[in-house]
Amino acid sequence: SSGINAESTFRVITFSVITFRVTTFRFITFGVITFRVICFRVITFRFITFRVITFSVITFRVTTFRFMTFGVITFRVITFRVITFKVITFRVNTFRVICF
Prior knowledge:
By secondary structure, the protein is mostly helical. Helix content is 98%, strand content 0%.
């Protein structure tokens, strides 16, 4: 009976060791998979955030550039009109003085 006892004990120990190793392996695998998923999500989130920020910055710069360009064009048009008005006024005044 001692032989059967030893064999059953060995089988129980072997089964326990195998179960422990399988459980440990599954736990480690789960941990690694979870870690990789979390890393992937963090990287994806950072990438998306980076793209959103980049897009916002580009949009802001384009808007600012357009606004500045519009301002410059408006300023040039106003300046041109003022100069034209002054030249016309000057010519009219000169003409009046000459005629008078």
